[in-house]
């Protein structure tokens, strides 16, 4: 007779045999760089050559859809309906990755060649998101091997444009609401709070990217002959940025300061660990005063400069450039007026004498902030299952510190959303040397296999 422990043992065997890393190596080897238009054929290749055959082996019916937005890549939908009266789980992943950044990785590491070094497994997409959706799909496989059926209905949606703002995802979901109908989203993206303890989050911070630019004149002029006579765009821009936040990064625009750090959110964030010994050390005297580190990153807004340039940094000359720009971003929580982010910035800059600073919204999409109550029955059930399997009480977050397209599931489809991340904070996501930790991946595979077992046995939580 099949059992929960035997299903978990199947997951352990799959990982310990090396089969998991072998499967992951094939996924990583496909350079699905959605930010590079020339790599668009690789997005379809990923779906057709890897994910579609995997779902077919698991008994799913599959179909690949073109994106309604020509800027986006294709979608793969799969479903396995065992009984219309059973609960339906929707899961999600994204097959695209950011640019590989070849030549910037340490030693002889290559972005699209899986490499092991102790507990670390390197490769672009290992953490974000190929490893994560591979774990969830193979956990379904372990359950099927053990029980020969899921005991619930399952739908899978894999997109290929998440790293460019999930172009077309909202439109696709609106067009396909009936096809995507489910009882809950259970999916994985982002990092655990700490590598050795499961994490659950039920929403995400939103993200708004924009460019600040100062364009005063064509070309550059000799800094000796014109210094003190010509306004310097870089200095103007630096001062404009310094007016947005103070010396410790505290936001100075009232409309950018959220109203949602309520007592219940503070209670949820109380005592949550932030940072990981494997990741960078937290900066002292940085962020909003009076808030704990957890409140700053999960309950508050943060402003960042992603890139900044004037002149030719790689080959400076004695000249004052006529142009400077900075790509900036506001990460925001529920309680922020999204439509007023850029208008409030315009008012602030003008009021502080920076009318020469232009604001240009980035073409890439952005995600809105979302949250779900930790008292939701699905959240409680997932938490209890993870605790039973791992022996540790999961860290519970009202929202991820980063951003992802959760609003498509929570708002468009009207689903409770439960995210169980399988990476960790020091994984170098979106940077050279991206990697996963073997112990985290193995633990996640065990946890998800057991979670799906529990749903199979217990049905919809009440």
Produce the secondary structure layout.
Layout lengths: L3 H13 L2 H10 L11 H18 L3 E5 L9 E6 L7 E7 L20 E3 L2 E3 L3 H22 L5 E7 L9 H7 L1 H4 L3 E4 L3 E2 L6 E3 L4 E17 H4 L6 H12 L18 H7 L23 H6 L3 E9 L8 E14 L8 H11 L6 E4 L15 H14 L4 E3 L8 H7 L4 E3 L3 E2 L10 E3 H21 L4
Parallel strand pairs: 3-6, 3-7, 7-15, 8-16, 9-14
Antiparallel strand pairs: 1-2, 2-6, 4-5, 5-17, 10-12, 10-13, 11-12
Helix pairs in contact: 1-4, 1-14, 2-4, 4-14, 12-14
Helix content: 25-40%
End-to-end gap? 27 Å
Sequence of strands across the biggest β-sheet: 1-2-6-3-7-15
Number of strands: 17
Uncertain runs: none
Q: How is the main sheet built? A: 6 strands, mixed
Mean pLDDT: 96
Question: What structural category do the secondary elements indicate?
Answer: alpha/beta
**Total of domains:** 2
Number of helices: 14
Tell me, what's the shape? globular
Q: In CATH terms, what is the architecture of the largest domain?
A: 3-Layer(aba) Sandwich
Q: What do we call the CATH homologous superfamily of the largest domain?
A: Zn peptidases
Which fold does the CATH topology of the largest domain refer to? Aminopeptidase
Radius of gyration, Cα only, in angstroms? 23 Å
């Amino acid at each position: 007779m099949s059992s929960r422990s035997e299903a978990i043992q199947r997951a352990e065997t799959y990982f310990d045999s090396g089969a998991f890393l072998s499967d992951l190596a094939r996924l990583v080897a496909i350079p699905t760089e959605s930010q590079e238009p020339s790599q668009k054929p690789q997005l379809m290749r990923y779906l057709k050559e890897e994910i579609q055959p995997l779902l077919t082996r698991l008994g799913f019916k599959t179909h690949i859809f073109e994106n309604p937005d020509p800027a986006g890549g294709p979608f793969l939908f799969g479903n396995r309906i065992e009984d219309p009266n059973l609960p339906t789980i929707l899961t999600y992943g994204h097959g695209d990755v950011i640019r590989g950044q070849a030549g910037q990785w340490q030693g002889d590491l290559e972005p699209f060649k899986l490499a092991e070094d102790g507990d670390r497994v390197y490769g672009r997409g290992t953490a974000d998101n190929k490893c994560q959706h591979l774990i969830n799909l193979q956990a379904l496989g372990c359950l099927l091997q053990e029980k020969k059926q899921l005991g619930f209905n399952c739908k899978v949606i894999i997109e290929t444009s998440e790293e460019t703002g999930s172009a077309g995802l909202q439109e696709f979901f609106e067009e396909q609401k009936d096809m995507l109908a489910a009882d809950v989203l259970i999916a994985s993206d982002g990092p655990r709070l700490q590598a050795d303890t499961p994490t659950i989050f039920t929403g995400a911070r939103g993200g708004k990217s924009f460019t600040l630019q100062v364009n005063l004149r064509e070309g550059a002029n000799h800094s000796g002959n014109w210094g003190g006579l010509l306004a310097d765009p870089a200095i103007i821009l630096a001062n404009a940025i310094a007016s947005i936040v103070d010396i410790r990064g505290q936001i100075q625009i009232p409309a950018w300061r959220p109203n949602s750090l309520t007592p219940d959110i503070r209670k949820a964030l109380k005592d949550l660990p932030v940072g990981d010994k494997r990741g960078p050390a937290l900066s002292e005297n940085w962020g909003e005063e009076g808030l704990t580190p957890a409140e700053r990153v999960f309950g508050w807004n943060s402003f960042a400069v992603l890139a900044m340039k004037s002149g030719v940094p790689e080959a400076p000359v004695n000249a004052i450039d006529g142009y400077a720009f900075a790509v900036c971003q506001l990460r925001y929580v529920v309680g922020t007026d999204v439509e007023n982010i850029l208008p409030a910035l315009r008012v602030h800059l003008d009021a502080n004498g920076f009318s020469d600073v232009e604001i240009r919204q980035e073409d890439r999409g952005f995600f809105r902030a979302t949250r779900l109550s930790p008292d939701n029955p699905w959240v409680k059930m997932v938490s209890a299952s993870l605790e039973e399997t791992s022996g540790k009480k999961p860290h519970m977050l009202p929202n991820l510190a980063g951003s992802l397209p959760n609003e498509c599931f929570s708002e468009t489809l009207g689903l409770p959303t439960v995210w169980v991340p399988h990476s960790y904070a020091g994984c170098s996501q979106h940077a050279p040397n991206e990697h996963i930790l073997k112990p985290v991946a193995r633990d996640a595979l065990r946890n998800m296999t057991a979670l799906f077992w529990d749903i199979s046995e217990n049905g919809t939580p009440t």
